[in-house]
Specification:
5-stranded mixed β-sheet; Maltoporin, Chain A; alpha+beta; elongated; 22-stranded antiparallel barrel
Length: about 900
């Protein structure tokens, strides 16, 4: 195996060229971690089926070493048991049992039966010391030769197995494993006491005399073992597309999985940044904490159109509709994988699943492992993580804590400015500063029923971008959540609670101006019940029917009063599989919103054709929606302007309708059609192609200023007039309206991942997005969006990951997007607030990491660089200029 050397990248162009050359010239051989493991697993199972036991088990052990999976241990144990090598079978079944599998009771039965057969050899060994004994016969294994039960080498191997199981028992604190280790040690001692120098006997086989007669008089019943785990256990799976585990080939949406390997080798610590590699993703980093994410267009500050879930629990801030990645109470080390659904999914998930879904699946409790990570870098950067997990019988747990801090990329107001004051003096340089604790537990009630509980808390300071003409904000305060649920073969019930309590405002307002500082207290309570059944009626069905209820509460100085909302929904999906070649998916959801007169319907239909076992053609059509946030519904705030004593009154849809008679907001809507092809046939490459059409209407935007007329002053319930609270005169009102523009968007994505040599993984994807705008004239006659192109027409991602056999890891990720043109609001001395175009040049971003794994991967040293070329780019006209950030880490696992 020849290590692959990487040339030094001196520029972004050089990096892109090098990656492209490797893509074109590299010979096909092996794959990434998951695919390497799958390759060994498939080969091992075939060798065992062909009768080559030792060679097959060697391949299975390589699969397990590459990427551990409990079912590999089960298959090895089963193969040994069928071959009559019972001591070896016992060891692997014990290791499988330590993972707390759902078939635990069955496996305990296997172990008891195997131990019975091992014990049957002992009487034959004892009589072999007196003289020759008649051979015994079994129906479940080979005949037992005359003589001793084992040689010295075999006894030593048995003692070593007992010692290993004892160590595993101590690591997992398993009493059952301790008992097994003691019995094995006792058996080894009995065999040793039988005498030395006798003829060797196999470690398995043997018989017991059920009636107490002589050995060999009775025949043991045939050993009953469960079936092989023949399913492709290393095949990629997604659960977010249809609410059940399935291959991406069967999913009704375009999907992307970001694996543990991708996360670790990237060196990134912000989940939002990890999404940049996804085809069609629109990712813009505004501050170290604030990363706005959308898919296939329509990104914005405080982006509200992507539904973000953690283990199925929504984490967006309801009053804003945005997700603040930097304050989520977990680290990247806590993540098992990230599933991304590209395209609308309101038919299953309701509002906010407008452009796509990000489902972050955390590491499950139970793995006997403790990990500590410490890191530091420039710009005050600190990264810390500690976690531990384990199990005891049916109970499993995991606890983790972490800390992250780094300075802002840039500051809009320096310390030397005397015309501004600092609202949070000690935090003026903070980009993100957060400490968190999270825990999860699982208890298996039976093979088919499991209950779980998880919670988290974080204490945060973060810098983020506001909306409209308001840009720079800082908030500080705790974030907490709690989730509990029960899952079974019949469905699930789940409850969660999210809470944020924060103190937020402008960090550096004009001297004597309004800082807009205010308290923010938000709670959301969500309960959902779902029936899930697989059955056959003419064809195979996978049916899901559910209902949900969500209560939202917000007490915020920016809103008119404390507000409460109650939301409900019912949903249905049936997946019909016909002869394993054709899959039909029908989905429908109805949502009930307290501010809307009618329920909102979200249908979706999809057809998946499987020409071969490893390829699929997908066609789908559906609708999605987004309803207004608390901010858009209930805002009532005097916005300061650059002119002293002059403000603009911002009103949400509800107070605007009540006080000014303005129209209430309608939901944003999207109609989407998609055609896709995916090929996972080979262990050496994956290819995906998607084409889509989206029609988007009723986007919610800020209106222009509505100036006050003379008749407004002194009128009853009029907002015109001097406001003593902020010592200013409002010159008019500004609110939220539905954009009259209609968007017809066409686009496509092509993605490939190839594996040229062992340990080398190369990915590349390209996305095209073109929007055509009609009816973009406001009621005042102003034409919007003539030149706007907030979504780059072209996006390109290239990356290399190299894992050497001696522990060296190297990763490079290159991202490029074409030019953009943003339509944003800005303060104007004459008009107060007006729309203005802000062009943004094309830009690239290059991230890199190098790491070294030592001592069987227990110790890992890493050095990562975000924005390696330090090109000082902005990813939004109002965003901070991104500088290079370096992070060195030391990680230890035990």
């Amino acid at each position: 195996m020849t290590p692959v050397s990487q040339p030094r990248r001196r520029s972004a162009a050089g990096a892109a060229l090098s990656v492209a050359l490797v893509l074109l010239m590299a010979p096909f051989a092996r794959a990434d971690v998951r695919t390497e493991a799958r390759r060994h697993f498939r080969r091992g199972m075939q060798l065992i089926a062909d009768g080559s036991l030792d060679e097959g088990i060697e391949e299975l052990e390589l699969a397990y070493e590459t990427l551990p999976h409990p079912n590999v241990l089960y298959n090895i144990g089963r193969a040994y048991a069928e071959a009559g090598r019972y001591q070896d079978a016992l060891e692997y079944f014990e290791r499988y049992l330590a993972t707390d599998p759902p078939d635990r009771e069955d496996v305990i039965g296997f172990i008891d039966a195997i131990e019975t057969r091992i014990a049957a050899a002992q009487p034959a060994a004892a009589e072999g010391g007196e003289g020759e004994a008649e051979p015994t016969t079994t129906t479940g294994g080979p005949e037992l030769p005359v003589g001793a039960a084992a040689t010295d080498d075999e006894i030593a191997a048995l003692e070593e197995s007992a010692a290993q199981i004892a160590q595993l028992a101590e690591a997992t604190q398993s009493e059952s494993l301790r008992a097994r280790a003691a019995r094995l040690q006792e058996l080894a001692q009995q065999l040793r006491d039988a005498g030395e120098g006798r003829a060797p006997a196999p470690t398995g086989g043997g018989a017991t005399a059920e009636g107490g007669g002589e050995p060999g008089d009775e025949v043991l019943p045939e050993l009953e073992l469960g079936g092989e785990r023949e399913e492709d256990i290393y095949a990629e799976q997604v659960v977010s597309a249809s609410r059940f585990a399935q291959s991406p080939l069967d999913a009704p949406n375009a999907t992307t999985n970001i694996t543990q390997q991708d996360i670790r080798l990237s060196g990134l610590t912000n989940i939002g940044e990890l999404l940049r590699r996804v085809p069609g993703a629109d990712v813009m980093t505004l501050t170290p904490s604030d990363v706005s994410v959308s898919f296939r267009g329509f990104n914005q500050r405080l982006s509200p159109r992507t539904l973000v879930l953690i283990d199925g629990r929504s984490v967006y801030i309801d009053p804003l509709g945005a997700t603040f990645w930097g304050i989520l109470p977990f680290n990247v080390e806590d993540v098992e994988r990230i599933e991304v659904i590209r395209g609308p999914a309101s038919a299953l998930y309701g509002a906010d699943a407008f452009s796509g879904i990000v489902n972050i699946l955390t590491r499950p409790p139970g793995e006997p492992r403790t990990r500590v990570v410490l890191g530091g870098g420039n710009a005050g950067r600190v990264h810390g993580h500690v976690s531990t997990s384990g199990s005891e019988g049916a109970f499993a747990y995991r606890v983790a804590a972490g800390y992250n801090r780094q300075d802002r990329f840039t500051r809009e107001v320096s310390d030397e400015r005397v015309d501004h004051e600092f609202t949070f003096p000690e935090s003026r340089n903070i980009g993100v500063n957060t400490a968190h604790l999270n825990a999860s537990a699982r208890y298996r009630l039976s093979r088919e029923v499991e209950t779980y509980l998880q919670g988290g808390f974080s204490s945060n300071q973060q810098n983020f971008q506001g909306t409209g003409p308001l840009r720079d904000f800082l908030s500080q305060g705790p974030y907490s959540h709690l989730m509990a649920g029960l899952t079974s073969s019949w469905g699930s019930v789940r409850f969660f609670w999210n809470r944020v309590n924060a103190d937020a405002g402008l960090p550096a307002p004009v001297l004597g101006g309004d800082s807009l500082r205010g308290e923010f207290d938000w709670n959301t309570y969500d309960v959902e019940a779902e029936l899930a059944r697989e059955f056959h009626f003419l064809v195979d069905h996978n049916l899901h029917i559910g209902a949900s209820y969500r209560r939202k509460q917000i007490d915020w100085a920016y809103l008119s009063d404390e507000q409460f909302e109650n939301h409900g929904a019912v949903f249905f999906q049936d997946t019909l599989t016909i002869l394993d070649k054709l899959i039909l998916v029908a989905s429908f959801r109805t949502d009930f919103h307290p501010l809307l007169d009618k329920p909102i319907f979200s249908p979706r239909g999809a057809v998946v054709v499987r020409p071969t076992a490893g390829s699929a053609i997908r066609a789908s059509v559906g609708t999605a929606f987004r309803t207004q946030t608390f901010l858009e519904s209930y805002l009532q705030l005097q916005n300061p302007t650059p002119l002293d004593g002059v403000s603009v009154l911002s009103l949400g849809s509800e107070p605007g309708a009540q006080r000014l008679g303005t129209p209430r907001l309608d939901p944003e809507r999207i109609l989407s059609a998609e055609l896709g092809y995916r090929n996972d046939e080979s262990d050496y490459f994956d290819v995906e192609v998607s084409a889509y059409y989206n029609r988007v209407t009723d986007l919610v935007i800020l209106s222009q200023i509505r100036p006050f007329a003379l008749s407004d002053f002194g009128a009853e319930d009029s907002p015109a007039g001097y406001d003593e609270g902020v010592a200013s005169y409002p010159i008019g009102t500004i609110g939220f309206i539905n954009d009259p523009s209609e968007f017809d968007v066409v686009g496509g994505e092509i993605a490939a991942r190839i594996y040229p040599v062992t340990g080398l993984d190369i990915y590349a994807n390209y996305a095209l997005n073109q929007a055509f705008v009609t009816n973009s004239t406001l009621p005042n006659g102003q034409t919007l969006r003539e030149d706007e192109e907030r979504t780059s027409t072209h996006k390109l991602n290239l990356g290399i990951q190299y894992r050497s056999p001696f522990g060296l890891d190297i990763a490079l990720d290159f991202h490029w997007v074409s030019a953009q043109d943003w339509l944003e609001q800005a303060f104007d001395a004459e008009e107060g607030v007006r729309f203005q175009n802000f062009p943004l040049d094309a830009y690239y971003l290059l991230n890199a990491r190098v790491g070294q794994r030592l001592f069987d991967d227990q110790l890992e040293l890493g050095l990562s660089v975000f924005n390696l070329t330090n090109n000082k780019i902005r990813q939004h006209p109002f965003g901070q200029r991104l500088e290079a950030r370096v992070l060195g880490t030391v990680a230890y696992s035990f």
